[in-house]
Structure to design on (548 residues):
């Protein structure tokens, strides 16, 4: 390895970068708020120096978090506030560690390996799962993009602009913004959306929130009116709109595209933690808006859609509130469409080995930008079709996300315990314990969501109790098994902090495929069966709803 000099501190250390599969992924970091040279040693002393570095690194974590407060998120949070007041704010607090733990794992995968999530699954677990991961991501993301353009239509429709003008213009803007050939320019556009997200704060103030009530509901779990199938499904929807499979693919690839290496992981972790709190603050503000604006009015507990929320705010709070909500919805739809579509384009470029970097122009990355443009154009066109079953699509997106979330989280956990891939960066025991609980809870919630979506007569409260008991039993067995395996396993060789910081994954071709135990093979077969059956039932149900 060559040696470089840290200009700020005159200390010498080995340079390191992960395997480069796309040449545009190597070089200086050109962030929206600063630049870091490729040969910078990462040593920073003093708050000012660290703050400048954080500003340059900041982006992937903040964008992926705020991007998840998309049109579906705005609708879900508004529904929670309008129908249940602020009684569900405690759910948001519980989601903060879920967001941070899940996304911190993909930060390490991206920075240490230099390889996208889809490609890693393909190389480590076989072509079936690699293609399955890209295929299901494509279907789910495409339907999600459609819902984003539904949000654009509702927002600008409230402002008096025809959807036949609003939707095509929004689609062209997203394509032009992304295909500029400059990562920095794209990130600055996305930061503008991130800052616009804070418009929800003055909107919440207009609703005259009771801060004491909000503080109580943040820390004391409860559900206004009691727990029933409707309220439980809404809790699941809040989780589902906050933790989505596309986030894993997006942030891992965006970390790579921004050229973040292991030396800068701690800064990207900080970026992600900040993003997690920003998204929760935005979600809480949206819940508060609908909760306090409609409390004591006929609109309380009568949510219909996001467009109606804007109209009702106009009626009960004032024209400014309605306009602010429409702008927040439009902003959420645009940042969501941009991030979700980009996650899909990254995955396809990664698997096909084609150029897939925002540092390249359209001519240099035709497949990458072609997929992005095609997805945006087709999704926008569907929204414009008269009589299209948009309601069925919106419902199907939530159910499909529930079906596919378990496989995404299971593969994430397996990859982050693969020493061939992450070496000294593999999960520690406490991260594994927390991540395992999170995965188990997400699997349980996805099962409830799928079951209650496909079979509405099921009592969600009773189902939740039975699955909760089963979850505790499974976690206990899993915990005992992991403790015994850890006691038998040989400890990994210790590395110095400097060596660990400069460790990156060897070329993929040199890695030995992981050998699965009989238990793991059985688990993967069960996962295949679950996914096949659940997707099949979902298609049948969506077809029935579309023909109703």
């Amino acid at each position: 390895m060559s040696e470089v000099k840290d200009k700020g501190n005159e200390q010498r250390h080995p340079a390191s970068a992960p395997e480069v599969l796309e040449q545009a992924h190597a070089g200086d970091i050109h962030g929206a708020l600063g630049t870091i040279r490729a040969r910078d040693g990462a040593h920073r002393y003093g708050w000012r120096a660290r703050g400048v570095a954080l500003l340059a690194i900041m982006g992937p974590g903040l964008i992926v978090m705020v991007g998840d407060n998309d049109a579906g998120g705005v609708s879900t949070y508004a529904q929670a506030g309008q129908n249940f007041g602020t009684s569900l704010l405690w759910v948001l607090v519980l989601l903060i560690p879920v967001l941070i733990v899940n996304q911190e794992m993909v930060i390490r995968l991206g920075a240490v390996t230099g390889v996208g999530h889809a490609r890693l699954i393909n190389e480590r677990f076989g072509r079936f799962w690699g293609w399955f991961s890209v295929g299901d991501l494509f279907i789910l993301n495409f339907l999600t993009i459609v819902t984003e353009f539904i949000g654009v239509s509702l927002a600008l429709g409230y402002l008096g602009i025809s959807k036949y003008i609003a939707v095509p213009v929004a689609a062209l803007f997203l394509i032009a913004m992304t295909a500029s050939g400059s990562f920095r320019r794209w990130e600055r556009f996305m930061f503008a959306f991130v800052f616009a997200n804070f418009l929800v704060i003055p909107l919440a103030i207009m609703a005259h929130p009771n801060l004491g009530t909000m503080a109580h509901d943040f820390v004391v779990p409860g559900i206004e009116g009691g727990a029933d199938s409707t309220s439980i499904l809404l809790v699941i929807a809040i989780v589902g709109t906050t933790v989505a499979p596309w986030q894993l693919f997006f942030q891992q690839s965006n970390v790579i595209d921004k050229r973040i290496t292991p030396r800068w992981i701690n800064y990207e972790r900080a970026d992600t933690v900040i993003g997690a709190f920003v998204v929760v603050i935005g979600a809480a503000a949206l819940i508060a808006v609908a909760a306090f604006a409609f409390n004591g009015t006929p609109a309380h507990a009568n949510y219909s859609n996001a467009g109606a929320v804007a109209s009702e705010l106009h009626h009960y709070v004032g024209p400014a509130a309605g306009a602010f909500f429409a702008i927040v919805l439009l902003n959420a739809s645009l940042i969501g469409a941009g991030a979700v579509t980009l996650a899909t384009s990254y995955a396809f470029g990664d698997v096909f080995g084609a150029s897939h970097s925002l540092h390249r122009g359209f001519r240099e990355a035709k497949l990458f930008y072609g997929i992005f443009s095609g997805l945006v154009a087709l999704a926008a066109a569907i929204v414009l079709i008269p009589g299209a079953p948009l309601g069925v699509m919106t419902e199907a997106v939530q159910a499909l996300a529930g079906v596919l979330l378990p496989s995404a989280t299971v593969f994430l956990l397996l990859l982050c315990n693969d020493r061939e891939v992450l070496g000294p960066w593999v999960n520690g025991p406490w991260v594994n314990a927390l991540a395992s609980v999170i995965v188990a809870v997400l699997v349980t919630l996805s099962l409830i969501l799928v079951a209650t979506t496909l079979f509405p007569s099921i009592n969600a409260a009773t189902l939740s109790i039975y699955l909760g008991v089963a979850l505790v039993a499974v976690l206990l067995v899993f915990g005992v098994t992991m403790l015994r395996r850890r006691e038998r396993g040989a400890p990994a060789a210790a590395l110095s902090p400097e060596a660990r910081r400069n460790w990156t994954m060897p070329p993929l071709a040199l890695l030995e495929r992981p050998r699965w135990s009989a238990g793991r093979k059985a688990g993967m077969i069960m996962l295949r069966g679950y996914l096949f059956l659940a997707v099949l039932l979902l298609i049948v149900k969506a077809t029935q709803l579309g023909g109703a």
User: Anything to note?
Assistant: The radius of gyration is 23 Å.
